[in-house]
Amino acid sequence: MSTASAYPSEADAVLFDGDELDRRLAAGEPAIRVFRDAREHGDAILMGRFREGAPARILVPLRTWLIDELLQRAWDRIMDARCAGIALVAVGGYGRGELHPGSDIDLMLLLDDTGLDGRDGCIEAFLTFLWDIGLEVGHSVRTLDDCVTESERDITVATNLMESRLLKGPEPLYQAMREATGPERVWPSRAFFEAKWREQLDRHAKYHDTAYNLEPNIKESPGGLRDIQMVGWVAKRHFGAETLHDLVDQGFLTEEEYQDLDAGQNLLWDIRFALHTLAGRREDRLIFDHQTALAKQFGYTDQDHTLGVEQFMQRYFRTVMELSRLNEMLLQLYQEVILYADDREPPQLINKRFQSRKGFIEVTHPNVFQRYPFALLEVFLLMQQYQELKGVRASTIRLIRANRHLIDDRFRDDLRCRSLFMEIMRQPRGITHEIRRMHRYGLLGRYIPAFGAITGRMQYDLFHVYTVDSHTLFVVRNLRRFALPEHASELPFCHTIMQRLPKPNLLYLAALFHDIAKGRGGDHSELGAEDAYAFCAAHGLSEYDSRLVAWLVRNHLLMSMTAQRKDISDPEVINAFSDQIGDRTRLDYLYLLTVADIRATNPEMWNSWKDALLLELYTLAKRALRRGLEHPIDTEELVRETQAQARRRLKVKGLHHMTVKSVWRHFTDDYFLRYSAEEIAWHTEAIARCQSQDLPLVLLDGHGARGGTEAFVYTSDKDHVFALTVYAMDQLNLNIQDARIITTRNGYTLDSYLVLDDDGNPVQDPGRKDEISTRLRHVLSQDELRPPSCRSVPRQLQHFNVGTQISFMDDPNNGRTVLELITADRPGLLARVGYTFARCGVRLQSAKIATIGARAEDVFFITDHNNAPLTDEKQLGAIRKMLIELLGETSDLVEQATGL
C-alpha cells in the first residue's frame, strides 16, 4: 500500500513501445534480445528522468507498469494451451506496485486443481526467459491448498498474498486464492495485528530500537519504509483500505498527518531509488560509500560548521523520527479498535486532567492542554508515578503533537513547568522511557530548544555511530542502568558508585547537555556548559549544583582524554588531573559520566581495556585526593612501596631476596613507577629463571587485570625491537592498546604490550597464545627489519579524509620528546611507525594508542640513542618525512607542529 495511485494515469509509449516489440519479433529477431532491449530502454528512460528531477513516486509505478508489460507479453509468448490453468500473480512489493530499480520481482505461479501435471516444463521455460532478459525474479509455485497451508504457517506469506495482483491467468482461480487466504479464513485481523506488531518489535530490536545509527537501513530501521508498510498492512487487513489516504476517511489520520506521512514516504522513496541507481543493484543501507554522493544529488553543500552530507542525513533522521511518531500513534489507534473494541470498562480517574483506560493514560477532555499547558509535561510524570500505565492513548498522543506550539518562552518560564521537568528527572523509575517518549512526541526539543537543534544531527565519522540526540539519550539510559539493581551485574563498580551519589539527577542533567552545543562552532564543551548552567539556575537548582552540572559538561572529555592520551603511570600526570578534579564527589560524577558516554558513542569502542584503564585512573586520582592536593605523590616513596609489595609476592613464589636484588639492580626507578607489583613479580620470576640462550623471553599473561592480554618481551636492547614486535603483531591481527618500553642499565629492554584480539577481547585460547609467542620469538630472533607490507583498507575507512598531523613537544620533567600522530586509521599503522623509529635512530619509551572512529590519535614518548630528548631539527625532519612517505600522504596534507 502506498500514498500514491498504483499506476501511471496514462500509457507511456516512450517508456515501452509494444508495437515496436511485436514488429521486431515478427521480423524474426531473437526474443531474448528484443525483450532485453525493451527492458534496458525502459530502465534508461526512467534513470534519465530521475536525474532530471522526476520524483520516485512517479517513477516507481512507471517501472511496475513496464515490468507488467514485459511479463504479460512473455507469458503470452511462452505459455501454451497446457498452461491455461495457471495464474501469474505479482506478490510482495511487486504486488503493491512498488518496484525500485533494484527491487526483487516476486512472482507466484498459482496452479489449479490439476497441479503441475506435466506443466513444469513451460513454467521453467518462462522463468528461464525472465532471467535471460535480465530480470531479478523470485518465485514460488503453489496450489490453492499450498497457499492456505503456507499462509497459516507463516504470516509473511499471508501478507504477501494479501498484497497480490493478478497479471495473467484465470480470474476465478485468483479470486478463490484471495478468499481462501482472507481474514475470514486465515489470520483474522486481531491475530494478524498482534503478530505484525510483534514482528515490528523484533525488527526494531535488531537495530537497537533506533533508526539513528550512521549507516541506517531505510527500509527496515525504525521509521523506515517497513513501518509505513506495517500501517498499510493492518489497515488493509482490518478495514479493507486500499491507499493510506483511506485512513483519513476512516478517521485514523488527519489530513495534515497524512501529508506528513506522504512526504516522509516520498523522501524515503527518492533516497531508495537513488541508492539503487548508485549501487547498480538493490541496496537499502545508507552506507558511507553513497552518503556524500546522495547529499550532492539532493542539493546539499558544505557550510561553515556543517558538511553537506551531515545536512542531508539530518533531514533523513528527522523524517524517520516523524514517521516513527506516526507509526506509534496509528498502531496505538489500531490496538484500541482491534483489540479493545468490545471493552466497555469505564476509565479510572487520575486527576481532573487525566484518566486511565485499559492501562493507557488519556486526557479527560480534548481541551486539557489548551486550558492547562503544563499538562504537556505532567503526562510524562504521571507515566512514571503510575506503574500500571502501559502507554499513552493514541488520541492523547495526537493532542500532544497538535499542542506542541504551546511550548514557548512563556511556557518555559512557568514555575509549574520547570518544577514538573525537574520532578521527572528526580523520579526513581521511568526517566529513560519518559525522556525518550518526550523526544519522540517532539516536546523535548521544544522545551530545550538547543536540544531541538541537535535532533537528527550526525557527525560524519566512524567514532560517533549515532546521531547526537540519540547518543545523548543512550548516555542517560546507561546512567540509569548504573542505578538499577537489576542491571548491577553489568558494571558492578559503577553501580556501587551510583548508590552513593547524593543527587543522581544532576548526572542526568549533565548527560542531557554534554553534547548539546555540537555543530555551533567553537568548543562544544564550553558552550554546552554555559547552556547547562543557565538551565539549572533557571530551574531552581542551588549555585553549587548548577556549577557542578556545568563543570561536568565542560570537562566531560577530561577523564577519557587523560586515560587514553597521557601516561597515567607518571605521578605528575595524576597530580595535575587530580588538581583539575578537586574533590572525590566530582571524581565520582565524572567517572560515571565518562563510562556512560563512551559506551553510548560506539558499541565497539567499549572493551575490557578501556574499562580497566578508566578504573586505574579513577583509583590513582582517588588516592591522590585522599592524600590531599597539598601533599602530591612522592616518587621515591611510591617506588619503595611498589618494590615492597613485589618482594612479598616473590617470597611466596620461593625466590630468594638476593636473586631478586640481582635482577632489580639493573632496573631504573621508571620501571617501578610504570608497572604494578603484580606485574613486576611476574616479570622478575621469569627473568630470574631464564637463561641467556632462552632469549628473547616472551610471556603472555591472560589474567586480564589490565583489561587485555599483556605481551611481555625481555631481550637484548636493539634499535628495532619495537619495530619488529609491532610488525609481528600486525601480521597476527592483534590490536595494540598500550605499549611500555623500559631499557635496563645493562643493555636489555623490557617491553610490554597490552593487546586485544580481532574481536576486541583478551586472548584466551591457549593455541592462539602459543601462536603469538612462537611468532614473536621467531621475528625477534631473526633480527631482520622489513618494510611494512601494504594491506587493504576496510570499506568504511575509505570514505573519511582525515588529514595527518605530526607534532613534537618537549617533556623536560621526564627527559623525553612527545610525538603526537593524528592520522587516518589503517591496517599496519603501528608497523609503519616502528619502522620509521628504527630507521631514524629513535628509541621508544612509551606509547598511548587510541583509535577514534576513522582517526588514529597515537602518542609516542621517544628519545635518542642516549635516552635524551630529541633536539636535532634534522632528525625531527627526517622522522616527519619518513612517516609522511610510509603513510602515503603528500606533504601539503600534513599539518606540522613543533612545540620544542
UniProtKB/TrEMBL annotation:
Family matches, as PROSITE patterns: ACT, HD
Record flagged with keyword Membrane: no
Superkingdom classification of source: Bacteria
Catalysed reactions, semicolon-separated: [protein-PII]-L-tyrosine + UTP = [protein-PII]-uridylyl-L-tyrosine + diphosphate; [protein-PII]-uridylyl-L-tyrosine + H2O = [protein-PII]-L-tyrosine + UMP + H(+); guanosine 3',5'-bis(diphosphate) + H2O = GDP + diphosphate + H(+)
Region Uridylyltransferase, annotated ranges: 1-349
Names of the cofactor(s): Mg(2+)
PANTHER family in the cross-refs: BIFUNCTIONAL URIDYLYLTRANSFERASE/URIDYLYL-REMOVING ENZYME, BIFUNCTIONAL URIDYLYLTRANSFERASE_URIDYLYL-REMOVING ENZYME
Record's protein name: Bifunctional uridylyltransferase/uridylyl-removing enzyme
Species: Aquisalimonas asiatica
